[in-house]
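Figure caption, in words: inputs first, then the predicted bound structure.
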Amino acid sequence: MNNFLKHFAYVAALIISVSCNQSKPTPEQKPIPQPTQVSASTIKVDINLFASPNDTTCGMPLSAGIADTVTVKGKLYGFCSSSCKEEFLAYQPKK
Ligand SMILES: [Zn+2]
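Bound structure (zinc ion present):
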């Protein structure tokens, strides 16, 4: 039983090390992080698709990053955060 666990741990470590190698195919990359860091929650969307090139709530340009979007009356709006979207929706006339 102990041998099985040892073998399992060895295989697991092997898989982990292999997957680590795959995620870093070129270890000689520049150590400096890129200046334009994009958070995981940022959505990559063509700015031209939006009704306004800016976050209509806070005025921030959508090119700086879009965290949330909403479609109102067939028009697409982008927002820097979901709170901006909520504020935008709060001011929309309700049917
Ligand atoms: Zn905003």
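The two ends are 67 Å apart (CA to CA).
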